[in-house]
Automatic annotation (TrEMBL):
It comes from Salvia divinorum. Keywords: Aminopeptidase, Hydrolase, Metal-binding, Metalloprotease, Protease, Signal, Zinc. The gene is MPA1. It holds the Pfam family DUF3458_C. This is Puromycin-sensitive aminopeptidase. Its EC number is 3.4.11.2.
Amino acid sequence: PKEIFLKDYKEPDYFFEKVDLNFQLGEETTLVFSKIFVSPRVEGCLAPLVLDGVDLKLISLKVNGKEVKGDDFHVDSRHLTLSSLPSGKFTLEIVTEICPQKNTSLEGLYKSSGNFCTQCEAEGFRKIIFYQDRPDIMAKYTCRIEGDKSLYPVLLSNGNLIEEGELEESKQYAESLTQNLDPCTRSHAMYSLKAAMKWDEDVFGLEYDLDLFNVVAVPDFNMGAMENKSLNIFNSKLVLASPETATDADYAAILGVIGHEFFHNWTGNRVTCRDWFQLSLKEGLTVFRDQEFSSDMGSRPVKRIGDVSTLRSYQFPQDAGPMAHPVRPHSYIKMDNFYTVTVYEKGAEVVRMYKTLLGASGFRKGMDLYFKRHDGQAVTCEDFFAAMRDANGADFSNFMLWYSQAGTPRLNVVSNYNAVAKTYSLKFSQEVPPTPGQPIKEPMFIPVALGLLGSDGKDMPLSSVYHDGKLESISNNGQPAQTTVLRVTKKEEEFVFNDIPERPVPSILRGYTAPVRLDSDLTDADLHFLLANDSDEFNRWEAGQVLARKLMLNLVSDYQQNKPLVLNQQFINGVKSILCDSSLDKEFIAKAITLPGEGEIMDMMEVADPDAVHAVRSFIRKQLAAELKNELHNTVKNNRTSEKYEFDHQNLLRRALKNTALGYLGSLEDAEMRELALHEYKTATNLTEQFAALVALDQIPGKVRDEVLADFYNKLQHEYLVINKWFALQAMSNVPGNVENVRKLLDHPAFDMRNPNKVYSLIGGFRGSLVNFHAKDGSGYKFLGELVVQLDKINPQVASRMVSAFSRWKRYDEMRQNLAKAQLEMILAANGLSENVFEIASKSLA
Ligand code: B3K
Ligand code: ZN
C-alpha cells in the first residue's frame, strides 16, 4: 500500500468549475451521469487529467461531446487517466455504473435498511463517479435524482430545491429536497438545531446561508454524522431521542453533534481544507465550537471536566503509542484512519489555546479575519494561525509546533516561597516524549492559567510577575488579577511573583489551558485544600483526581505485592464531604466522586496491569459504598426526578447524581441495596434512570441480574438503539470468562455484523472490559483478532476501528505481549486485507 505525504502536496493541474450529476437509482445497478466543466489551472496545460475511481464500471466517456478514443484514456483499479486533451476549457461527460446494493463498506453510495445513502468524506466520492477526489477541487454542483416513487418517496440532495416532479413508470425525480423529519426527531434534534443556529449568530456572527436545511437519520452509518451542505446525515443514535429510548447522555450527545455538523457549514464547508492533512483545521475548530456551544447550554465546568476526561482516557494513550501522530499528520495510507482523537480532541485543545491567549474578543477578531480572508477557499492550518496572529498583532513564537509535534508534553512545576522577600517562584520545565518518526522534540508554547490561594482559601490579588529578566504587570482592566495566563515557551523557565504575603497554594493550569501532563510538588494537604477551596471548579475537581490517581497507583502496587488493600480514612472523608456539600452543583458532585478511569491509571504505569487496576478500582468503589452507604442511599432517595421526563438542567443534575450514587450501591453484595436498585428499575419513568438501575444490577452475577437483563430485552426489543445499549452492557461485563457469552450474543437475532452501531456495541463494548479483553489465556485477544478478519471483508472502516484495541500491546507484560502480537500477525497474514486494517496493524507492530 502506498503512503501519502503532506510534503508532496501539489496544486491540481485542472480545476472543475461546475458539475452536473444525474442519478438513476435502480434495484440491480445505479447509473450516474456526470458532466464536468473543466478548466486548466495554467493556460496551455498538457498534463494528463487523472481521475480517481474505485469499484466503478465505465459506461461511456466524452470530451466536448465526442466519444474518447481508446488511445486517449486508460482505466485501472484506481484511476481513469485522460490524455490528448483540448487546450483550454472543456467538458467531460462520463456515465458510470455502480452497485449500491452490494456496497457493505458504507462508503460511496450504498443501499441499506431500504435507503440509498452516500458517504463521501474522506475519499468515498471516487466510489460514485470518476473524479479528482480531493478537497481543493471546489465546484458548483447540480444534482438530479430519479427513483421509484413507492420505494423512495423522499429524494434529498444538497442545496436549494430547484425542481421536482413525476416521471413515467411510477418514477419521480427531484433536483433537491423537502423537509421530512419524523416527529420524535423534531423535538430534541430540532430544538438543538435552532439553539445551534442562534448560538452561532450570537457568538460568532455566523448565519446560515440557504433556504433549506435537512437533518436525516440513517441506521447504518460508519461514523456519528456527516456535514453534507444543507443535508446533514446522522447516525440515527445521534438524532432520534425520546425519554424511553435515549438517556441524558444521548440527549447531550445529540445537542453537541447537531451543533457540530451545523457549525461545519462555516468551519468545514464555506472554508474548507486544502488537503486531508489539514483535517484538524475544520475538525479541531468545529469540536471546539461544539464544546463551547454545549458549555453555554449547560454547565461550563462540568462540560470541561467531561472533555478533559475523554482526552486523558483516549487521546493521551494514542499520543503515547505506535499510532501517535501530530494534530496535522505528516503521512497516511488510509485517511479514514486519521479521524482520530488527536485530530479532533487535541485539535480542539489547540484552538482553545488561541482563545486562552487572546481572550474571547481577540479570538473573535481572529475568527472574523479568518472568514473575511478565506470564505469560499480551501486552506491550511497556517492560514488559521495567521488570521489569529494578524487580527491581534499577537506574538505566538513557536505555537505552530502544536500542529507538527506529536506526543503529550510533560510539564513539571517546582515552587518556592521566600518569606523574607515576600516572593513566590514557580519553576517550570517541560519535556515532549519521542513518538514514531520524531525522536527529538522542541519545547512547546504552553499557556498556563494560574491563581494563588491564600490561607483563607481566597485568590490572592496578582499584580506583577518577574519573568525573563523583566517585571511584567498583571492586570485585569486596571485591577490586580485573580487568574493570570503564564506563557511557558522554554525547556526551563521561572516566574517570580512579588508582594505575596504568605506561602500560597498554587492552582496551576486552571480550566486545563493546555493538553499536557502536569506534575507538581503539591502535597496531599495542598491538594485537599484546593479540593475544598479553589475558585476554579475545574481545578477543584482536578485536585480530587490527582489525589485519587496517587491513591490508586499506590494500591495497585500493594495489590501486585499481595499486600492487603486498605483505603485511607482521609480519602473517604474527602469523598463524603463533597457528596454531602449542598452548595455544590449536583452534576459536579457526580463527577467529583467518580474515580479516574481504569485506562487513565493503566496509562500511568510502567507496565500496564489490567487485573490489578481493575481489582483496585473495584475495591475502592466497594469500600466507599460500604462506608458511605447511608449518604449514598439518601442521595438516591432525594434525587428521583418528577414524573414527566424533561431534558432540562435541574432534572439532569439530579439524575446524574442519583445514578452515580446508585452505581456505587450496586457494587455492594447487599440484599437491601439490590432491592433498592430493582425498585428504581421498576419505577423509572425514563431510560436514563431505568438503564442506570440496570447497570447497577449488572455488577453482581446471579439470578437477579439474569432476570432483569431478560426483562429489559423483552420490553424493549423493538427499539434497536436501546438494544444496542443492552448488548454493550453485557459485552463490558467483568464476569470472568464473559468472552463466551459475547460469542453467543453474536448469534443473537438482534445482532447484525453489517450494522456498525451493533459492532461498536458488542465487539467495541467487549474491549471495554479490561479483565476479559486482556484475559491471561489470550481468549479476549483471539476473539477480537478473528472478528477483525471477518469484519474486514464486510466493512474495512469498522474493522480498522476495532483493530486499534491491539495497538498498545507493548504496554503489557511479556505473556500478553506475545498473545496480542500473534493476533496482529495473524491479521496481517489474512487474504485480501484492506489498507485500513493493514495500516493500523502494521504500524502497531513496527
Ligand atoms: N466529517 C465527518 C467525518 C467523516 C469521516 C470519514 N471517515 C463527520 C464530522 O466530523 O462531523
Ligand atoms: Zn466534524
